[in-house]
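Lab meeting prep.
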Amino acid sequence: MLQRRPSNPVEIWDDGRYLRGFATSDGLVVAAVANRGSVDAPDVRLELVAGHASIETRRRVEQTMRRVLGLDVDPAPLQRAVRRVPSMRSTARALRGMRPPRFATLFDTFANVVPFQQLSIDAGMAIVTRLVARFGERVSNGAQPLAAYPAAAAVAAARLPALLECGLSRSKAEALRRLAAAVEAGELDEDAIARSETNEALNRLTALPGIGPWSAALVLLRGFGRLNVFPPGDSGVKRSLDALFGLRTAASLEAAVERCGERRGYLYLLALGGALLGKGLIRPAP
């Protein structure tokens, strides 16, 4: 769910492990996570496999990884909510145990939302890959090179032509650079957004450059873990849900989303997961 496509240069799966590079005050470190248990009785372990980390850095990486993997969210109530919809039961079974994944930082979230606006996942991932190659830090983990998403400071200082060369439109490049500058300057308060009621948080986000209703909802869902939001107007997710539900109208989709209530965002994630299952990019739970 985090990787989306095997070409993702940051979210890496290798021999049953999830590898992820993090830019820290001690430099770039690489965390590896593996489940030594099962889907129903997980035993999730983390180790740092590259870079040198102080005790404080290790603690921060552990906290971040718990957030990224949604380990503190109980999936059982989410699955029960979705199983109330008969046509979703087989997909819910195939994705059993899935916790809501999140991006690690506020700017990581913007960097994974803005490039995908009005584009397919494949096209958006191509842009992200070029952004990482141009502006992200890199580290070698044995024979496998790993990278981190670009830091806000690197994108804020980037010249516009360099961002355009990554495949961003001029409006997206300008918006991402302004968002990066606001994050780097501390003008965007992640904690304040996290404390805000959902409608207030959506209003805060849509006031930002280049962030409309779809982007704002996706930032809340994928960056803040707000499961009570469903990003509107996502054509890819709509196609997935239309197929799963056998929906024929927009009103039918709205009704299906409403049936999931405060957990409607999980329905969005299941739609993405269903699409990945359909493409053979992930395997169903046993």
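Slide two material, second protein:
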Amino acid sequence: MKSVAIIGGGITGLTAAVRLKGLGVPVIVYEGGSRVGGVIQSVRKNGFLAELGPNSILETSPLITSLIQDLNLESRRVNASPEAAKRYIVRRKVPVATPTSPVKFFTTPLFSSGAKLRLFVEPLMRRCPADKEESLESFVLRRLGRDFLDYAINPFVGGIYAGNPAKLSVKHAFPKLHALEQKYRSLLVGQLLGARERKKRGETSKHDAKPFSFENGLQDLIDALQQRLGTDLKLQTPVYKVSETRDGWQLTATQHGKDAAFEHSNVILALPAYKLANITLKTRKPADLKLLEQVYYPPVASVVLG
């Protein structure tokens, strides 16, 4: 049996590889750089632990719990301090604590009285046609109003995507939000009924999930995944062409300064859009990945103070 090729050694590629390997499927991960982990990287310096990318995991699914257990990382797990749950948003030059309960929501000065009353009307609104492309900004203004866009969604989106709600697709960037409206016609009704469905699946909402990390930061997770793969990982081997063959796929990559070809039964592409755009895809049905160059990635800087 030929192995499955996974192109990209970030968290997606590594997790897919370890899961497949656990099922008895041979895999090879190709990473163009000298390290794996993608944007996840932890650094210890002068007695401090700094994260250059994400700094925690939300345990929203039993699949996350299963992965941590499978990698024997439970003993290294560190739960976030309760103090870390506090969030503030500035309104009229004053930091206001974000409400964490229905009672606090109706008493917070963060939202106007009109914005709070509008929530009672939200279940009566029509849903958007499922096939219509709508921005997150348009979606929130239509269902919740300007206050929620400015003092809830915009800070949230800025912190996670460093993006503009007017340029983010609600269907593709927030598929669960889109699905709530389509299935229940209302976000509020969807939250209530969706909570029951999540409970049946053993899942937890992001609001209720507890963030955690590890003793050496999220680097512990990356190191454990890398160790599990062992020699099934090829570093400094950037793939630049993927060709469909009669009985599988052929990858063309650069290795040790020379071109090299590798045969596989299947291929998983686990690269960011701007890197996928550099891959030539030769298939029976023509596909041009150059279009992915149009996906905008905003620059982000992490500043760590100690």
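Talking points for slide two:
The longest strand covers residues 248-255.
The radius of gyration is 22 Å.
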